[in-house]
Specification:
Blueprint (H helix, E strand, L loop, with lengths): L6 H9 L14 E2 L2 E2 L1 E2 L12 H15 L16 H11 L6 E3 L3 H12 L8 E5 L4 H13 L4 H4 E4 L10 H11 L3 E7 L11 H10 L3 E5 L11 H4 L3 E4 L14 E4 L45 H17 L2 H22 L4 E3 L12 E5 L3 H13 L2 E2 L1 E3 L3 E4 L8 H16 L3
Helix pairs in contact: 2-10, 3-10, 4-5, 11-13
């Protein structure tokens, strides 16, 4: 059966979806007097309307209470990071003590590797995916060099084995099997940023641990996009950002997971006073005693103004009923997008992202027939018409219907935009 591409059908789908009302909780950018069709939440999520009030609350407390704001209700600053802890644990499938909001994504990756990448002459290697986001590769290569090893031999990059640039589990398992005795640490994405492919994290953790490696995940494109089970899946650590699907603002404070089995680890770490045991922190003693759990990796006072937007975002995730409900809506939205592309735009757009919903989140990565120049021309045409996606070199347009605020009507508008460009003789 064909998928109806009418305004009436799209509106009916949105009207039948109770989570569609969440769109009203966000500021939608405008173009030529109308709301944009914004599909770039995988790069920067939209601002929740409740964010300003939470930030203003901090500003007012600072203005009216100054240093006493650390201790006075509501929302005192001393335990402020704890205000987001339980909500984050729900989103990533962890115990509250296993998560903390701190630093930035790549900083957290370095801090985790300081503890969990402990290479030896026999096991010097880090295993990662080829084509990773550059910041990950820079971080991992620099860690290998920092420890006196050679990235040419000790940074193992697994190549995709499918024509569209995706990875089979067999390819990952084969790489772990072949290099296992040399692997100290595996760092793998939850969702590959260019293709949108999602991975079986539990199986990767199982394979890596069986080979004797430490397992870490970069969940920059996974958190707030897919239901996660970090505690049950068994990763040793994970890192992520909050400015994409978590809608917490540009350069938002990032997140970190450390499994409870490492809660009282004697592994070395780069320590700071805010990670010191809370009961004795203000005794200002010379010996570092870490807080058990992920909070023991904190360094300095949490950035209160940076954490405030995350509170507003997590309130919307809770209102939506959690990641399970959002995932169901995401499946409907991205499925509608996929169906319309395959039925109406098959000669124009190639979908690189796996068709199996279990192997993807919200994002579809699209390649335009005819090469890079045609791809850029389409991307710029859409942008001029208020349809905002994301371009990734050399030839990929990423379209991500975020379940908190995108609609079936947005998706139909994208499809019609591509059709208009094609019919104009592009």
């Amino acid at each position: 059966m064909s998928t109806p591409a009418t305004d009436e059908h799209a509106r009916a789908l949105d009207a039948a979806d109770p989570l569609s009302a969440l769109r009203d909780e966000f500021h939608l950018p405008r173009h030529a007097g109308a709301e944009q069709a914004y599909f770039c939440g995988n790069s920067l999520g939209l601002q929740p309307k409740g964010t300003r009030a939470v930030v203003d609350e901090v500003m007012d407390k600072w203005a009216g209470e100054a240093v006493e704001g650390h201790f006075r209700e509501p929302a005192p600053w001393m335990p402020y990071h704890a205000l987001v802890r339980d909500g984050l644990a729900e989103v990533v499938g962890a115990q509250p003590a296993e998560v903390v909001a701190m630093n930035s994504l790549t900083a957290n990756l370095h801090f985790m590797l300081a503890s969990f990448y402990r290479p030896t002459r026999e096991r010097p290697a880090i295993l990662m995916e080829a084509g990773a986001f550059p910041s990950d590769r820079y971080a991992l290569e620099s860690q290998v060099r920092f420890h006196g090893f050679d990235p040419a031999s000790d940074l193992v990059e697994v190549e995709p084995d499918a024509a569209d640039g995706t990875f089979s589990m067999a390819a990952i398992a084969d790489a772990i099997g072949r290099h296992g005795p040399r692997i100290a640490t595996i760092v793998w994405p939850g969702v590959q940023y260019r293709t949108g492919q999602a991975f079986d994290l539990a199986e990767i953790a199982r394979l890596g641990h069986a080979a004797g490696a430490i397992i870490g995940f970069d969940l920059a494109h996974g958190v707030g996009n897919l239901p996660l089970r970090l505690h049950d899946d068994g990763a040793d650590f994970a890192v992520w950002c909050h400015y994409k699907y978590m809608n917490s603002g540009p350069g938002a404070v990032a997140g970190c997971f450390v499994h409870e089995r490492h809660a009282r680890t004697d592994r070395p770490r780069l320590a700071g006073w805010w990670g010191h045991d809370q009961a004795s922190r203000f005794r200002m003693g010379p010996q570092f005693v870490p807080t058990p759990g992920a909070e023991g990796w904190q360094l300095s006072n949490p950035p209160i103004l940076g954490l405030a937007p995350l509170r507003a975002s997590l309130a919307l995730f809770a209102r939506a009923g959690g990641m399970g409900a959002l995932r169901e809506r995401s499946l409907r939205l991205t499925g509608y997008l996929e169906a319309l592309i395959r039925e109406r735009l098959a000669g124009t757009l190639q979908i690189l992202t796996p068709a199996d919903p279990a192997q993807r989140g919200a994002q579809l990565s699209l390649r335009v027939a005819g090469g890079r120049e045609r791809g850029r021309a389409l991307f710029e045409f859409l942008e001029r018409n208020g349809i905002v996606g994301d371009w990734r070199e050399p030839d990929v347009i990423r379209i991500s219907p975020a379940p908190l605020y995108n609609s079936h009507a947005d998706i139909l508008r994208f499809v019609r935009g591509v059709e208009a460009w094609r019919e104009a003789g592009a």
